[in-house]
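Researcher: Batch entry, complex prediction.
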Amino acid sequence: MTNCTNELSTTYNAREIEKDTYKFWEDNNLFKADAKSNKEAYSIVIPPPNVTGVLHMGHALDGTLQDILIRYNRMKQKEVLWMPGCDHAGIATQNVIEKNLAKEGLTRHDLGREKFLAKTWQWADEHKNRILEQFKLLGASFDLSRKRFTLDEGCSNAVKKVFVDLYNKGLIYKGSYIVNWCPRCQSAISDIETNYETEDGHLWEISYALKDEMGAIVIATTRPETMFGDVAIAVNPSDFKYKDLIGKTCVMPLTGRQIPIIADEYVDKSFGTGALKITPAHDPNDFEVGLRHNLPQIKVIDEKGLMMRNEYVPPQIQGLTREEARKKTVKMLEENQVLVRVTKHVHNVGKCQRCNTTIEPLLSKQWFVKMAPLAQPAIEAVKTGKIKFIPERWEKNYLMWMENIRDWCISRQLWWGHQIPAYYHKETGEMIVAAENPDPNNYIQDTDVLDTWFSSGLWPFETMGWPDTNSDDYKKFYPTSTLVTGFDIIFFWVARMITMGLEFTKQPPFSTVYIHGLIRDEHGQKMSKSKGNTIDPVDLIEKYGCDALRFTLTSLCTYGGQDIKISDEKFEFGRNFANKVWNASRFTLMNVTKPKEELKIDFNTLTIADKWILNELNKTAKEVNENIQNYRIGEIASILYEFFWSKYCDWYVELSKIEKNEAVLVYVLDNFLRLLHPIMPHITEAIWQKMPIEKDTKGILNAKYPEYNEKFVFEEDAKKMETVFEAIKALRNIRAEFNIPTSSKIDIIIDNNEELYKQIIPYLNRLAKVNSTKFEKNCNHPKSAYCVVDDTKITIPLEDLIDLNQEIARQKKKIEKLEAELKSIEGRLNNQKFVSSAPKEVVEKTIARKDELKSEIKIIEDTIQKLA
RNA sequence: GGGCGUUUAGCUCAGUUGGUAGAGCGCUUCCCUUACAAGGAAGAUGUCGGGAGUUCGAGCCUCUCAACGCCCACCA
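Model: Structure tokens for the complex:
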């Protein structure tokens, strides 16, 4: 690193450190993956952010979690690859460009396809670096030399190959079906791009007269304007009300067109009037009914959502919007006295996920992927555990969707995207599906492009060089290890990657899917620009620092993957911790004066305090490794926080002011920094660079990750040290209770465990402000306060300072607490069933606790008597 | 209609195989003790949503009720 003094600056300036540190990693190429390495591989592909996007809190969380896994495995000495890149985001990007054009009063059609695409490419090129640059602010250790884009040449080749192969296998087909059509986007969208919203609507009951006889049949509809496309009236075959009408013909109001009355099981007898008008061109269920009964399909609404100008639509209605047409149609029905009844009706209306326009189910010629055969292996892979979801409950969600999968409409009537590799003969119309145009003079390419998710579904292998399965990256890093993402794109993306990965590489694209929650605002609302409740991670980084942001976000992750509610102030948690790490490290480094050659731990001279902290560190290393391997990533933040703040800073550093072991101080700090590095990469790197230790790597980022080591197990000494802490805390408590000022010291008399307490007299002197320590069995000093720590009584003669009644009351309160516990414990032990059926250790532990309580109570009682 | 999640201290939330509850923030009292006031010390606070059951023992397992949230389905 550049500024190499031996000390840390007195104030912790997060941003300064973070910028320098990231530059150090980048300048030294430390994120670059080596496909030729012999080390075990660990790889993650980034969920490619939209090329048009800016960094939001969801990226911050997702990116942090991926970076933690990457950094952890890098330190585990694996060859890691974090593959970065962007998604071309078909509709989203095209919408942005079209909006910009609209400001100039232009549409894409004014420009034409070629110019429009050139403009979009220019815009994408300008913006595609922005979001990845912002990921750098997060400390992302991805390999930018491998950066990819879903519309780059490699991806394009992969997409063509996949399309052609699927077509040749009969898994891609083109056909006229009902699709979700967005009249604003002017494109088909898939089922999962359609969201349903409940709306207050009406149910109109309309009378259709029978032909050549008296009588009529009344149907119920929520969309009267579609009636011009009716081709039948359907009733349930078992509905006796209509039994006699089946097979008859009726005459449509307003147009006089004649349509048959048919019977179909699909009709619900109890809904509306039990009779249903069938409009195959504008309703998915009617479409199915129409196919079953061989009915014609009459289109009356066009791609812009306007009533068509054709023989079926009355002239007054033609060209109207759906809403206008509805009003007008209802009015005309009223005038013709065929509107029987209107009732209020709440129903769900499909909306375009991108622009919230009401979608129109429309008969349209589109390309589809036949999903059922592809889904089967994808179901198996999860059921057999080849792919594991964390948390597990998402498996059920995934399987349910997969088992009820429907064909995927992949064509979009957009310009920005992978153009479908199908070519039509200019004269004959003959279609050829191939990677390249067979004859550009005579064939023109299909004008539609593919759903964005078609190319992102290939992401884990198209970025690794596929279809070249001999490429170094593919051989080394595919299949990838872990996929990290939010639950909102399991169907859109995860499911598609699994199906495509299995079909084309015969392997699951990753072995673990780690699903985290979504970021929400402090009230639990989804963050959105329109609500104005977004928090910008870049602002948080500027204000609190990247490491603070990462630490806070990590600490808020739960194993169950709950959504995370955040507010600006929550990040003070991480900032405070970073500050603590900085300052304690600064103190440690200031107090280490020996050269690094002399900083080897000598196991023969360790004090119980040294052994205690080494034992704690060792336990921490064990727990951190276990938790990270089990994706309990939030847990490691608390474990490290607790260790560093409550153990190292509160006790060990304080003790070291009295008596220090420089080797242990440095050893513990070094290992702690390594343990913390995946979460807080910059601060740990910056401090580590100044550590007086032997380093065999350029940075902490590829130093060895600490692990549990038998050599550092000192349970017994650690327990003794805990006893000492109890004593110090008890003495401090007495000082506080009796308002003994910091300036006045106390004398103490200890009646037991002389050997232990003798060792720690300097600790007592400093941390509890003790003046003198005497050892005396059966000590009975009048006018004293006292405390009991395990089997040891400590007496503090206070003379005038003490109010005996206060002390007695204090002790009585303690006894009350102890006796309550004793009572419950004795109750348990007197229960024969407990003693016989509880595990032996539990019973033994309970008995031990009983003895402990009894002896403590006895000591206190005895003393009270003598005080009184 | 089907599925999932949540309900624990004033607030935000942890709580891994069942052994009578924890953190951060906030609150009270004291302290600028030469790493840190973004700090230190000492404290107070909970019949773990209601009910029932299994068990020697339930925040944790089973059933049930309630409230809130989400996903899927989309009966015109």
